[in-house]
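Input.
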Amino acid sequence: MAPHGEADRKPAQADGTDAVAGRIADAVDGLAELWTTAAAEASVRLSAHQLRALHALEAAPGENLTMLAERLDAGLPTVSRLCDRLEAAGLLLREAAPHNRREINLRLTTHGREVLAEVAELRSRALTEVVRGMEPDDRAALEQGLRAFVATLRDPPADEDG
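Output.
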């Protein structure tokens, strides 16, 4: 079965930037599948949205529901229900804000942080297995290509036409 989206793409020429972009998209689809599969093996099964919420709260502990909804680009009722499920699973705490008792801050529990660490470890192991199966020259080329990709993403070249 073709990765999601692969059948929708028009065949690209054997070379050129469009073909390279298509192969990168295929690799991203494969990585997303690897990420999802690895995360599903964790002791607590979480949806992609739940994982995103936990990661957002790990990065910014103490956010309120409105700020989390903005980070997740989701509506307040949806995020509130998501937090209800995370709280029921023992992964999230809702605490009254010290400066405003009506505002609720969200924090990961110790168990929530442990689950995120477990998911990260499972994903790392899965990715390591794939990379370990590559030839050394291919690993080096991948690393070099990824460094160049990230550098260009962070600092795109100036538009030569402008």
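The domain at 41-149 is CATH 1.10.10.10 (Arc Repressor Mutant, subunit A).
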